[in-house]
Amino acid sequence: MSDAAFMARAMELARAAAQAGEAPIGAVIVDPESGEVVAEAHNAPIAEHDPTAHAEIRALRAAAGARGNYRLTGLTLYVTLEPCAMCAGAISHARIGRVVYGAGDPKGGAVDHGARFFEQPTCHWRPEIESGLMREESSTLLKDFFRARRATKS
Questions:
Q1: Letter string b/e over residues 58-95, b meaning 16 or more CB atoms within 10 A of that residue's CB
Q2: Is 33 one of the catalytic residues?
Q3: Which residue of 14, 42, 55, 140 sits 20 to 30 Å from the alpha carbon of 48, by its own alpha carbon?
Q4: Which of 56, 82, 128, 137 is catalytic?
C-alpha cells in the first residue's frame, strides 16, 4: 500500500472520532518493510477520561503491545494532524522511524510549529518528517467539526 492509502485509513479513523464526539484525528502505524498495519487509533480523551488519549499515543501503545517492545524503530506513523509536544515526545521515545502528517497545527503542533520538538538539542531521537499528505481533507474535517461544536454551544 502507498502513503496515500495509509493516510486515507487515518482519515477514516478521524471521521470515526468525530462521530464519537472526539476531535477528528486518526493515526496508523505501519511496518514499511512488510506493509503491515501494526496499530491504529483515533482520539479518545473524552471517552477514556484521559487527557493523554490522543490518536498517536493510543496507536503507539497498541503497536508496542503488538510488538512486545516499546521501541518501534523503523515503523512509520501516519497521523491526520501535526503532533503536539506530548505526542512528539512519545514518538521520540518510541524511536518511530518516520512520521507522515496531514494538516499543520500552528496553535498546538510541535513538529513544524511551536516547540519544534525534534529540532531541540535535548531530543533523543529524530524521525524523518513528511507533512501535507491529505492536508486539505484533514484541515476541512477539523474545521467543520469545531465549527459545528461552536454552533451547538451558542
A1: bbbbbbbeebeeeebeebbbbbbbbbbebbbbbbbebb
A2: no
A3: 140
A4: 56
